[in-house]
Structures are given as structure tokens and as C-alpha cells.
Amino acid sequence: GAVVSQHPSRVICKSGTSVKIECRSLDFQATTMFWYRQFPKKSLMLMATSNEGSKATYEQGVEKDKFLINHASLTLSTLTVTSAHPEDSSFYICSARDSFGGDRAYNSPLHFGNGTRLTVT
Amino acid sequence: EDQVTQSPEALRLQEGESSSLNCSYTVSGLRGLFWYRQDPGKGPEFLFTLYSAGEEKEKERLKATLTKKESFLHITAPKPEDSATYLCAVQANSGGYQKVTFGIGTKLQVIP
User: Fold this and answer.
1) What residues of B are in contact with residue A44 (Cβ under 8 Å)?
2) How far is A18 from A79, CA to CA, in rounded Å?
3) Which of A20, A27, A115, B28 is the most exposed place for a label (fewest CB within 10 A)?
4) Looking at the complex, does the CB of residue B46 fall below 8 Å from at least one CB of chain A?
5) Cβ–Cβ contact A95 with B under 8 A
6) SS (H, E, C) A70-89
7) B34:A41 CB<8 A
8) CB distance from B10 to chain A under 8 Å?
9) CB contact (8 A) between residue A46 and residue B100
10) Would you call A93 and B46 a contact, using CB atoms and an 8 Å cutoff?
């Protein structure tokens, strides 16, 4: 159980184009999903919290107009990297927790997708 | 500010050589401590959740323990397939919402 599917796993795009990454919870519902960015030898960096049916909450220093997040249903969140530049090249990972998983749902662990390796040329 | 420090950064073990990974944390209002395994090019895979000091969880060759300041991931008689990066994360109540902070991980290599 608690499977999170993320697509695509790899994408190469040209500078100035936009890329959309999808994150789906396959066997549970999630009112909240999280988008992380991972740099080599660094901890996972939370970029934003995606809220179903409302605006995402962005962490300090993350440009909301560059990283567009949509959470249209309880099982799908998307991250669009707009006007991508080489410095946006990174490993992006989404995660979610089962929002309806019982007493400890609020403190239940995050389950992660397999990540998207974005390369901007 | 919540902090999570993992040590060592890298660990090389012979197959069968047991050891422990450390995760020390500074948070106010711990709501849970999580251990994950991450293989190269993949997302983190959930292993354990610990909620209170004294709690222990086991899964195959792995055992996680928790005190008020740190957590240990004990690996007993590791095999090469246990090679991965192990991440520790803490969840705490921050400004009214639940925030998860990750350590940088311990990269474990088990040599046959």
C-alpha cells in the first residue's frame, strides 16, 4: 500500500521551455502533497506544499511563478517548471501521506515517488 | 530551527559486519521520526516511524531505536543488497503546521 507514482522519470528540455511533472497517489487519497528538490550530498529541500482545491504554499526562496503547482484532485498534483534554465536541472521528488489513514494520519510517514531527473540544456 | 544531523556520512562494511547509523535531532514538539532508504536515482522508500522515546521497530536486518535526542538504525549482518543511502527525518509542529526536516543521509556500502 501507499504507492506514489511520479512521471516522467527523466526529461530533457531546452532552455526557455516548460516541463510538467505529475504525482499520483495510487491507493490512497491525499489532501496534501509535497514537492522536494534534491541536490547531491544535500538533504531533501522542501519546495512547496500542494493543497487539494486551494493554492500551494511555497517555502522561502522558491519562486511561485516559476514552479507552478496544481492539486486538482485527492490523488493528483502537478509541478510545472516554467521557462526552465540550466540551473533548474535537478532531481525533483513528490511525496504524500494518507490523509484518511486513521488516528495518526496527520503524523503518518510521507511516501515518495521515484523522482524526476530534469536536465535543461 | 529544527535540525537533523546524520553520522557517519558514509560507511563501508564487510558483509556480515554489524553496525549502527546515528541520527541526532533538535526539534521542539517531535511528532515522529522516520527512517527511509534511498537507492541511486530513486525516491526514498519508507522503513520505520518512531513516535516516542524508548520505542523500537524491526524489519529483517534493520532495527530502529529512539531516545529524546537521537535515533539509531542498527544493521545486523548486512548483505550487499543493503547498500543504499539511509535518510532520517523528523516531523515537528512548526508555526501551526507539521514540518518534516531531513538529514543528508548516510551512504552505506556493504562489500561481499
Assistant:
1) 44, 87, 89, 102
2) 10
3) B28
4) yes
5) yes
6) EEEECCEEEEEECCCCHHHC
7) no
8) no
9) yes
10) no
Q: Name the residue with cell 530533457.
A: A12
Q: Residue A90, exposed/middle/buried by CB under 10 A (0-12, 13-18, 19+)? A: buried
Largest CA distance in chain B: 48
**Given the C-alpha cell 504524500, which residue does it identify?**
A96
d(CA B102, CA A105) in angstroms, rounded, equals 19
CB of B104 within 8 Å of a chain A CB? The answer is: yes
First to last CA, chain B: 41
Interchain CB distance below 8 Å, B32 and A107: yes
Cell numbers for A44: 531533501
Name residue, grid cell 515522529: B32
Q: B43-100, pLDDT tens digit by residue?
A: 999 999 999 999 999 999 999 999 999 999 999 999 999 999 999 999 987 666 678 8
Tens digit of pLDDT for each residue in B8-24? 999 999 999 999 999 99
CA distance B66 to B25: 11
Upstream peptide bond of A8 is cis (omega within 30 degrees of 0): yes
